[in-house]
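Changelog entry

Holo records now carry the ligand SMILES as an explicit input line rather than a separate metadata file. Below, a converted record for magnesium ion, shown in the new format.
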Amino acid sequence: MISETPNEKPRFKLHPVAILNSQRLRRSLMDTYDQKSFYKYVIGIILLILSIGSLFYTDKLVQELEEREEREVQLYAEGLRYVVNSPLDENFNVIYQVIEDAVNFYQIPAIYVDENNIPNPNKNIKFPVKISRQERERIIQERLEEMKLEHPPIPVEIGKGRSGKIYYSNSFLLTQLRYYPFLQLSVMLLIGYLAYLAFSSARKAEQNRVWVGLAKETAHQLGTPLSSLMAWVEYFRSDPSIDPSIAEEIEKDVIRLEMITTRFSNIGSVPTLRQEPLAVIVANFISYLERRVSSKVKFEVHNQLAEEQTALLNKNLFEWVIENICKNAVDAMGGIGEIHVTLQAPPRAKEIWIDIADTGKGMTKAQASKIFNPGFSTKKRGWGLGLTLAKRIIENYHAGKLFVKNSEVGKGTTFRIILNADIIEES
Ligand SMILES: Nc1ncnc2c1ncn2[C@@H]1O[C@H](COP(=O)(O)OP(=O)(O)OP(=O)(O)O)[C@@H](O)[C@H]1O
Ligand SMILES: [Mg+2]
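Structure line, unchanged by the conversion:
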């Protein structure tokens, strides 16, 4: 209630049941949010465990394969030694073939370097089809340098004081397996992200339907008692024994209730936007508000817009937003302080900024990140809905933005509304 400040007597008090209901609704809305972030954490932890498990498992496979490949290269070294030392007999070719096949099976690239550092036989090194001898030697040299960095060489003793070394690198399979977990992780993250987007947009659409249904039903239900109340007002008026000022006061409240009902029934329907003189609307509405709040709250409008500047908006909804932000500001200042409303159009941007700054108690960063969640309120009697609705009105219906520009505990808060200066009129 605007008039509820410590220094003023409240105009009327909320019924205790209404307070209880507001607290229940708030709690259930906050529970829904807490539950959602709980599920987010659970899914996140499961993904993390899966990813770590997959990384460990693949790492184990990589190690095993690496050891096996090293053994194969040792076998190749052994084969070379055997070939050099063995007397040529009929089994020679068969044995050599077995050794060759073993190395070829894993496709391990390997180069034998003799005691004079001259690279000789090489295995599984790919060359272009037509290639000169020099070009071939250059490629072998390049691969050799790479291999030197990858694994320590395997010595080959070929007897008679001669020795050589085999340099090798990982097979294609092993290299692929090394990168596989990262690929797998990226795909998992991408799928997770896409699923989250799909899920959250479906949830938002569902939430919107619930909001609209709730608002329209409330408006509908309020219609009957309101017209009955109006009839009672007429009845009181016609009775000369009743003080006419009572009927007048009740009528004012009934009219206000009717206005609120109309606003609720308008939620969900596409509002008509018109080009309106923004500065005039804000100035008039602020002076209307000023009369209704504590006289200890000083309002000031700083208009830096050109006189002819208009904005496309729905006047009723826009005023509702200003009212909600100012009501919160008055609450945050405990009914004493200043509210500065600044209107400006940044150069070259097709935008209008409306800053509403108060000298209230301010918010912490953690608080500020939650204030647009339905049900978040630090007030005993708050529903935690004012800012949620305000944000929807500005962002969904006016294609604008509403956010906390800055807030400092003990100093005050500034909200910024951004409206488009030239959005296309909806039909
Ligand atoms: N100007 C402000 N300064 C400090 N805190 C603010 C300000 N505006 C909003 N808040 C915080 O944000 C919360 C949510 O505001 P919101 O208007 O959505 O709900 P409410 O005012 O608590 O209840 P209601 O639904 O009746 O508006 C407030 O309870 C308050 O803690
Ligand atoms: Mg509020």
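Spot-checked after migration. Residues 207-264 form one domain. The two ends are 36 Å apart (CA to CA).
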